[in-house]
Amino acid sequence: MTLYFYSKGEAYGEFSNFSPHGIEMDGVWWPTVEHYFQAQKFIDPNYRLKIAKASTPKMAKAMGQSRAHPIHADWDERREVVMLEAVRKKFTTHPALKTLLLSTGDETLAEASPNDFYWGAGGDGSGLNRLGEILMQVRTELLLLQ
Ligand SMILES: Nc1nc(O)c(N)c(N[C@@H]2O[C@H](COP(=O)(O)O)[C@@H](O)[C@H]2O)n1
Question: Which NCBIfam families match (predicted)?
Answer without folding.
Answer: ribofla_fusion
